[in-house]
């Protein structure tokens, strides 16, 4: 079952127009128009979810991560209906709002939510270079997704371009207790900042949704109305990602995804996170707003 998402009801534009506006576009772009073919030649698939695929493009300090989500299609993908523009809009809004918390000219700020470089509204077939890297990932790790060669020329996508946040905490090898402490404190302070500024709730913060990368910075700085915090990095920088289930308040509007009727999410077994989903549903009495 596709997740039902809620957006402010007073917005006069339809969801497709709102997405185009957020992407600073008048119409959908092709993959080549968005990033150029060179970027796709320097790519590797690094992750996936039922939403779609994640690739790293570029290399070194110029690398980025792109998350490609098919939308508005008439057929299921990866066992679920494709999201509509209205259903993915909350995630796009939340990504931009959290990324903006890195600005230090505000009462609450921190750098630990993944930076959104840009959003793109795309239309077209999957590029061959990405399909090739999809196959490499599948041969090495056995993808659970459908191969995205099924998309036709009229298929639409929302593509998120993020800074390269490194390796998921799930796969990262922690080298010391001081590294572990730093990662924990960075994430805890980031949540405190977002809760204060936006009444933010992540709702899916398992260790796959925290990225860790080495850093040369010795300290990071967080600001709250109550005061300023300086944290030692101990050589690691943590980034919070993936706001598919998240909620926040933007002015008087609540931006969220309503998963109260998505039975599969609450029937999962095998991982502690599935128990948390069920407890979360009980605690908020099925009210996800």
TrEMBL record:
Name the record gives this protein = Protein kinase domain-containing protein
Q: Which GO terms describe its molecular function?
A: ATP binding; histone H3T3 kinase activity
Presence of the UniProt keyword Nucleotide-binding in the record:
yes
The protein's matches in PANTHER family, at most eight in alphabetical order, are given as: INTERLEUKIN-1 RECEPTOR-ASSOCIATED KINASE, SERINE_THREONINE-PROTEIN KINASE HASPIN
Gene Ontology BP terms: intracellular signal transduction; mitotic cell cycle
Q: Where is the Protein kinase domain?
A: 40-289
Locate the residues binding ATP: 67
* Upper lineage: Eukaryota, Metazoa, Ecdysozoa, Arthropoda, Chelicerata
> Origin organism of this chain?
Rhipicephalus sanguineus
Residue spans making up a coiled coil are none
Q: Which UniProt keywords apply?
A: ATP-binding, Nucleotide-binding
Cellular component annotations (GO), alphabetically ordered: cytoplasm; nucleus
Matches recorded under PROSITE patterns: PROTEIN_KINASE_ATP (PS00107), PROTEIN_KINASE_DOM (PS50011)
